[in-house]
Amino acid sequence: MSIKSQISFGLFLLVSFWLQGQKFHDQIRFLEHLETLGEYKEALYYIDHLREQINLSAIEQDSIFFIKGRYHYELKEIEKSIDAFDKVGMRNQQLFEVAQVYTGFQLSYSRRFDAARRKFESFQSSDSLRLALVNYQLASLSLLERGLGRFSLYADRFEDKYYVLSDYQKDMKGIYEELKSHKRKSPFVAGLLSAIVPGSGKLYTGQIGPGVMGLVSTGIFGLQAFEGYRKDGLKSARFIIFGGLFTAFYVANIWGSVVSVRVSEQRYNHTVDEAIYINMHLPIRLLYR
After folding, report:
1. pLDDT of 224-234, one tens digit each?
2. What is the rounded CA–CA span in Å between residue 146 and residue 111?
3. Is the pLDDT score of 6 beyond 70?
4. Of 2-11, 133-142, 179-188, which has the strongest mean pLDDT?
5. 116 has pLDDT over 90
6. How deeply is 238 buried, as exposed, middle or buried, from its count of CB atoms within 10 A (0-12, 13-18, 19+)?
7. For 246, which of 128, 212, 221, 262 could close a Cys bridge (C-beta 3.0–4.6 Å)?
8. What pLDDT score was predicted for residue 85?
């Protein structure tokens, strides 16, 4: 435990009994102190102790569950955060709405897209900015699912009047245009091209160097095998050795082209998804920091 953690924990032991007799907002102030120090684990330990020792009202329990959800969120403990946020009731409408947004984002991040959509679509608020934020989250979720048509429906509702969202909306539209123009490579085509002309499947995926090397190496082994066969027939040691090398390189070239396309697409999708997640997350932090 760090020195800062030890100080915080010692402070907790000193004031915990004193806080039992204080008002709820005083206890929250102590949690805020731990939060300022970044001691989220110590704060969570204190919360559990607080709930065991003090009878909290329903509204106070909502506040505690919300704080727990936020602290688990900061610790990147997604399941615990979602569980805590889901226990926030509607008695405090503001906390309830924020909890829904955080939960929807975390469900999106953990790729539970159907659950995330249900959470966002069930969102209700009298605040137009919060409604615009949820519409933006639904648009972003559509891009994660590669639902370009569905994204357009949500994007049509984007409004420039919210400066907190406007830049992120533009960025998300840029990601949409990138996905729309992206020409997905086919593993089958890459493999077929390499079967016809070794190395051409790699050229198809944009790998110029490996494609040329595949063509040259396979061609050399093929010519050597042919020369051995032409001079000494099927039993020629030269034909057997270079024929085996040609076959191995030929098959490996086909398989390598197929794998290259799949890896390339996975990397592309991962890069795009990370950009989407960042643009989903930042406006939430700006609005609810």
Report:
1. 766 666 776 77
2. 13
3. no
4. 133-142
5. yes
6. middle
7. 221
8. 94
The identity of residue 67, as a single letter, is I
d(CA 41, CA 34): 9
Which pair of tokens denotes residue 94?
A: 């503001």
Tokens of 245: 């090398």
Q: What is the pTM (predicted TM-score) of this model?
A: 0.76
How high does pLDDT run on average in the chain?
82
Place of tokens 């930042």: 282
Letter string b/e over residues 107-125, b meaning 16 or more CB atoms within 10 A of that residue's CB: bbbeeeeeebbebbeebeb
Direct distance between the N- and C-terminal alpha carbons of the chain, in angstroms, rounded to an integer: 27
* Token pair in block for residue 90: 């509607």
- Which residue in this structure is represented by tokens 């643009």? 279
Name every residue whose Cβ is closer than 8 Å to that of residue 257 and which is 6 or more positions away in sequence: 187, 190, 191, 193, 194, 201, 202, 204, 205
Q: Do residues 137 and 105 touch, judged by C-beta distance below 8 A?
A: yes
Place of tokens 């102190």: 33
- Here the tokens at position 209 are 């160097």
Of the candidates 25, 68, 63, the one whose C-alpha atom is nearest the C-alpha of residue 46 is 68
Cβ proximity of 49 and 16 under 8 Å: yes
Give the type of residue at 99. A
Residues in the chain: 289
Instruction: Give the whole-angstrom CA distance, residue 239 versus residue 93.
Output: 80
Q: Which helix (H) or strand (E) holds 262?
A: helix 237-287
Longest dimension (CA), the chain: 101
Copy the structure tokens of residue 62: 């909502």
